[in-house]
Amino acid sequence: MSSLVAQHLKAQHDKKVLLIDLNVQYGGQEVLLGLESVRTYIDLKPVLRELDIHHIHNITAHNEASNLDVLLSPCQPEQAEELTDDLISALIRTARTHYDYVILDIPSDINDTSFTALNESTEIYYILTPDSLSLRSYRHAMNLFERLNLERFENVHILLNQEHDKSELTNKDISNLIDRKIAGNFHSDYLKLQPYINLGEPVFTSEKKAKFKLAKDVSGFVKRQLLTAKKEGDDSCLGFKKQPIRVEYQTGKTSIFVRIRWNDGFVIIKIV
């Protein structure tokens, strides 16, 4: 989801967008976007104290089809320990001074990386799927957010992913069960999405508009939620996160799209 939103903002609306893959151990964005780069944000450690946007541009991978800038993860488990909280914070804060949107793809477990990324955010878009396991995880996550002073009701927005006409739980059912309005809906459309994933090609480019259901959902979400907020004067950093299969959670203080260990879910967070 983080990749789709980033692609759409850049390719269809010509916004300055940076997608940061914070899945340090295994990555994934390089596969989705067909990127090859030997440089990652770990290379910024030696210049941490004087980090500026030029250092970030020097290690940024670029997807030509969507014109999207991406900071790749090292994809090597042994390098995960090299990523410090200070580097993550400095990277996000420096990037948001140059880009209209900074989108973070956050790992599926709670660790220093994901916690720090969430603490750099202001708005959270939490993704649910229409099933009881997802709802259970949501309740645990909200309890954790509250204990860590991260759950600010007005800053947590709910998105419903993998929606299907045959789902037993409807949008209205989910909204009633969690007592919150659903801010965005995304259809289950894997068969249409699969070729893009396998070929490492972006769904959205400046030359074409994808017309399958999920692509239209992403387009509508970006226009309603992100571009509207931007017009009102918000700087945005977005991060994605999935919903936990076991009881592990995530937190936030700025705006990003994030992924925790969930069945299906993500969080969007805005940076101010």
Assembly classification = single chain
Q: What is the CATH architecture annotation? A: 3-Layer(aba) Sandwich
CATH homologous group name: P-loop containing nucleotide triphosphate hydrolases
Give the low-pLDDT segments. Answer: 242-272
Cα separation of the termini: 22 Å
- Taking strands numbered 1, 2, ... along the chain, how are they ordered across the largest sheet? 2-3-1-4-8
**Shape by Cα distribution:** globular
How many alpha or pi helices? 9
Q: CATH top level?
A: Alpha Beta
Helix-strand category: alpha/beta
Descriptive key words:
272 residues; alpha/beta; Rossmann fold; five-stranded mixed beta sheet; three-stranded parallel beta sheet; 34% helix; globular; disordered C terminus
Word description of this protein:
The protein has a single domain (about 1-240), classed as Rossmann fold. The protein is about 35% helix and about 15% strand. It contains nine helices and eight strands. The protein has helices spanning about 1-10, 30, 55-60, 85-95, 110-120, 130-145, 170-180, 190-200, 215-230, and strands spanning about 15-20, 60-65, 70, 100-105, 125-130, 155-165, 180-185, 235-240. The strands form two sheets. It has a five-stranded mixed β-sheet, with helices on both faces. Strands 5-6-7 form a three-stranded parallel β-sheet. A hairpin with a 4-residue loop joins strand 2 (about 60-65) and strand 3 (about 70). Helix 1 packs across helix 9 (about 215-230). The two termini are about 20 Å apart. Residues about 240-270 have low confidence and may be disordered.
